Amino acid sequence: MMLRELFEAATIVWGKSGSKMVRKYRCTTGQRKGRVVAKPSTCSAPINTKKSAAFKKTRKMKGPSMAVKSNRTKRSYKVSKRLRRLNKARTNR
Fold it and tell me: Could you tell me the pTM of the whole model?
């Protein structure tokens, strides 16, 4: 697989890693279409079904509290606000 093919499978977006802004990739093809990942090669990697099932179970139990916490973070953290503005400007181009 050529490097160019990897980058055609993903577009560059900004994301958070802790309290820092980092460059990430949104998958445009494959099983992870629409997901934001750290490396574009992840878009075409095989899915780990055991991890997938475990997280589905966790999300069913803790989904509402996860949503409250993430929304609070997105509203109050400066980095989150900056990222939202950067990624919004990218989609308008």
Answer: 0.73
